[in-house]
Amino acid sequence: MTENREHHYTENVQDHLLKVQHLLEKQALLETVTHRQTLPRDERHELLDKMLHKRHLVELRERLDGLHSADIAYILEALPIEQRLMLWDLVKADRDGDILIEVSDAVRESLIASMSREELREATENLDTDEIADLAPDLPQNVMRDVFKSLSIEEREQLRAAMSYSEDSVGALMDFNMVHVREDVTLEVVSRYLRRFDALPDHTDQVFVVDRDDRFKGVLPINLIVVNEPEMEVGKLMLTDTIRLNPDDKADQAAQSFERYDLVSAPVVDEDGKLVGRVTVNVVLDFIRDEAETDLLNQAGLREEEDIFASVWKSAQNRWTWLALNLATAFFASRVIGSFEDTIEKFVALATLMPIVAGIAGNSANQTTTIIIRSLALGQITQGNARRLMIKELAISGLNGLVWGGIAGLFAYFLYHNVALGVVMTSAMVLNLIVGAMVGLFIPLAMHKLGRDPAIGSSVMITAITDSGGFFIFLGLAAIFLIN
User: Which domains does the chain have, with CATH numbers?
Assistant: First the structure.
């Protein structure tokens, strides 16, 4: 039954969005009609209650009650702010925390701003400590103080630990909700212990084995508990050769381990060998998705994730940084062209051909950058192979320059019946594609060396350099071989 319901969630989330939007539109229409009535004020309000609260609002509540928290988050992200806040008021209070965890950072900000201190406290108290740590940066300090006071001593220590790690570390992904047993007990004892739980923690595919000092010893997969005799001791069946993570490890390295070894969960062990938590595959998948979205935004020059229904002013500010840089580089490119005005006046065909040189090189450079960023993310580039990779990319660009530059040169020759122009076109394409390859290599590698995201503004900077470089190379060669 649960599997069918989850499949229903996944397949029909957009259908749910459309139905919610339809109900919201009908409600808005009813409000408009009601407020236009010429009835006395009290009667008009009574009519509004009957038409709205007994019909569409009730239907909206029922629909929301039957949806998964992630689906509600999806719907909230797709609604304008006014409708989003109205729908948010209809969500059951005990689900607020789960939904706040699921929504994007930008949308979460608008939801939190609409909630009172008491509502935020109640929503947060229903969450696990690792989830509270995720929400903490967005919550007011007075709310965090209230939440902290309501936690047990153990939970406070867990919350402090979770908040002490950087966002890109394993510690930030760590979950404290796990099952661990001793190595000297039997499977029968373990089974009785597991049956005491109302429900096992999500993604529990193995039980962690520790000693009396909570030092990690190994893991006991759930399937081994089922298929072996109850009298068997845990120590004889546990697996000791297993992946273990450290809280200070990079989260992307942990994600690679989960992908490479098909992990469902992995223990997190500190420097003293003590088990401090676990990382599960659902958290890793969320991290990978967030990283992919961040890289996409960074490549486009956006400073942060944007609420698509945020105000025009706020959205515009989010896009200003790289637009300003782009404008500056565009002015620089225009000055490059301006310095060759005499050349262009004498040979007007240059003005129609030079965008081709810049455009092809920019596309080639972006291809190189994409390969490099992906390789950096997978940890495939080292000092030992970086030189070989550079030579390979330069060779690819040179070959592409000869092939496609030759085609472009022939195109220029047939258009203007000038052999020298065709040669200049081919030469400029080869040189600018090589420049593009060097830029496509250098920018992400330099960013990575500086400890920054290699994708930040890469496409903007590459376009600027290949445009300016392409114009300079093409017009410079033309000035030497066509005009003089």
Answer: 2-173 (1.25.60.10), 180-282 (3.10.580.10), 312-483 (1.10.357.20)
